[in-house]
Predict the structure.
Amino acid sequence: MEVIVLADDTTAAQTGDATEVMEKTDDQARVTVNGQFVVLTGRKVTGLQIKEAAIAAGVPIQLDFVLSEVRPSGEQKIVPDDREVTVKSGDEFWAIPGDDNS
């Protein structure tokens, strides 16, 4: 079976003569981290899980980076590793190296 990801977040599974289109699950959220798309497999995730998913998707960050959620107003709110947040497709996050000058 060949699985193809389509631009609208649906997937098509091709089995022989037929192609079955499967909608993305409601539990997934397509967000951006540092401008790159990352698919999260749940709607409630921790800051650490967002960074892990971003790293797995090839975003060049590290687990010790500081993660921030970009609010609709443009303000950024830090998301600690252990804080659970509810995400939806289109949410934007930035991860930057932490400040070692304390």
Observations:
- The two ends are 53 Å apart (CA to CA).
- Residues 1-16, 18-24 have pLDDT under 50 and may be disordered.
- The first strand starts at residue 2 and ends at 5.
- The domain at 29-96 is CATH 3.10.20 (Ubiquitin-like (UB roll)).
